[in-house]
Structures are given as structure tokens and as C-alpha cells.
Amino acid sequence: MGLTSIPRLRQAVIVAVCITMFGSVASGQAAEDILQKTRAAYVALSSYSDTGVVLVEYGTSSKDRHTFSTNFRRSPRAFLFDFHKEGGDRYVIWGDPDAFHTWWKTTGGQSDYPNPNNVPAINQSGYQTAGSVTKIPALLYGRDILQGIFTNFADPVLDGTEEIGRRKCYRIVGRSSDFYGTGKEVNIHKLTVWIDAESYFVRQAREESKTLPGHINRATTTFELQANPKLDDSKLRFTAPESK
């Protein structure tokens, strides 16, 4: 290589680096714009309904498939989240104008969370619902204190488009984590969200954590939803069975 070729090589490297940097910035900004539109779309709803599936994959080839449904009315306030675990367990969260409540089939017990201290009904139910309840409710209520899919979504970038259930979706990739009260970040993992390119509602979310070579640790939550459906009271009411 001649000496005169070195400046051209440096220029080519600089140009390539700049394209990469500006491309990352643009993808990040596009992702943030989409996420903002998603937040606005949910808060604008007067009612919402969905059915969903959580596919949990772990070990070398193990899979668990859980199902759930959500019904929500903004005014008068009513909420019902019904989770069915593979194997027969069930966990229900419901809300009325005065309180939120939970019932767990495993224990047979009901817990009540009167206003204004109703947040634990959702925030402390992630384990019992395979994380499914920590996806959409926070978006519906627009409250940062509720644990939701975007609560700790860091470094999101637009990673292209993909069809989910015959719907064109934006695929946004980033990382998520949990925080101790001391501010220490733990449970850092990859988060991918598929957002409907037309309505901006979440169609699918996937969380993936590092694990042993040859193993997998992944949970994929998929939603079939209705925006502003007409919901009668029977779809928003739950009576816990009496404890035996």
C-alpha cells in the first residue's frame, strides 16, 4: 500500500463510522417515537379487551404454555385480568372504583388493596402470572408506578418490521432490568417488542435472558386485542370462590 492511500483509507473508515453512528441515532429516535405513540394510544382508550398466550421456554427443550384475558373500562373504573397456568392453576386480578383485588387458586385466598394503596395488586403479581400482567395494564392506566413493559426499557432501537398475526409490526429491540431499592440494577435481559404499525398497540413481547450453553430462557407473550369494545358488567366482574 502506498503512502498516498492512507488518507483515503482513513476517510473511508471515518465515513463508515459516521454512517453507523447516525444510523443508530436514527433507529433509536424512531423507536422512541413509536413507543410514545404506543403510550398515547393506550391512554386514549375508553375500554380494552384481549386474550393472550405466554410461551415460556427453558432448559434444553422444555416449554410451558399459559393463557390469559384482560378486560378494562376506564369509567366507571373496572378491570379484570384472568390468568390460567398450564397444569390447572389460576390467578385473577380485578378492580372496581374503590379497590383492586387478587385471588390465587393455589392458596384459595383473596387479597384486597383499597385506594389509594392499590398498586401492589399488579406490581406483586408478576410471578403468579408468568409476567403477563406486567405488560399492558401500566399502559392502560398510564401510571409510571405500575410495572409495565416499558418501565425499564433501555436503549430501544427500531430493528425492522415483521408480521405478527398477519399484522405488520415494528420490531423494537432493547434491554430491560429490575432495580433494588438501593438503585442496583439486576436481572438485565433482552427485550423485543412488536408494535402494530397501524394502531400502535403491542402485539407481542419477548424477554430473553442469558443461560447455560445449549439452554434457553425465553418468554414470549402474544396478544389478540380489541380497542374500545363494548363490555357488559359480566365481563368485568369476579367473585372469588369460598375457601375450603
What's the structural blueprint in terms of helices and strands?
Blueprint: H1 5-43, E1 47-59, E2 62-73, E3 78-84, E4 90-95, E5 99-104, E6 109-114, H2 120-123, H3 137-141, E7 154-164, E8 167-179, E9 185-196, E10 202-208, E11 216-227
Antiparallel strand pairs: 1-2, 1-11, 2-3, 3-4, 4-5, 5-6, 7-8, 8-9, 9-10, 10-11
CATH architecture: Clam
Measured as a percent range, the helix fraction is 10-25%
What profile does the largest beta sheet have? 11 strands, antiparallel
Number of helical elements? 3
The CATH C-level name is Mainly Beta
- What is the fold-level CATH name, i.e. the topology? outer membrane lipoprotein receptor (LolB), chain A
Q: Would you report the number of β strands?
A: 11
Structural class: alpha+beta
Order of helices and strands: HEEEEEEHHEEEEE
Molecular shape: globular
- Nearest-angstrom radius of gyration? 21 Å
Mean pLDDT across every amino acid position:
89
What is the spatial order of strands in the main beta sheet?
Answer: 6-5-4-3-2-1-11-10-9-8-7
Q: Could you tell me how far the N terminus lies from the C terminus, measured between alpha carbons in angstroms?
A: 85 Å
Low-confidence stretches: 13-24
Name the assembly state: single chain
**What is the count of distinct domains?**
1
Strand percentage lies at 35-45%
Structure description:
The protein has a single domain, classed as outer membrane lipoprotein receptor (LolB), chain A. The protein has 3 helices and 11 strands, in the order αββββββααβββββ. The N and C termini lie far apart (85 Å). 20% of the residues lie in helices and 43% in strands. It has an 11-stranded antiparallel β-sheet with strand order 6-5-4-3-2-1-11-10-9-8-7. It has helices at 5-43, 120-123, 137-141; strands spanning 47-59, 62-73, 78-84, 90-95, 99-104, 109-114, 154-164, 167-179, 185-196, 202-208, 216-227. 27% of the residues are buried. The protein is of the alpha+beta class. Mean pLDDT is 89; it is low at 13-24.
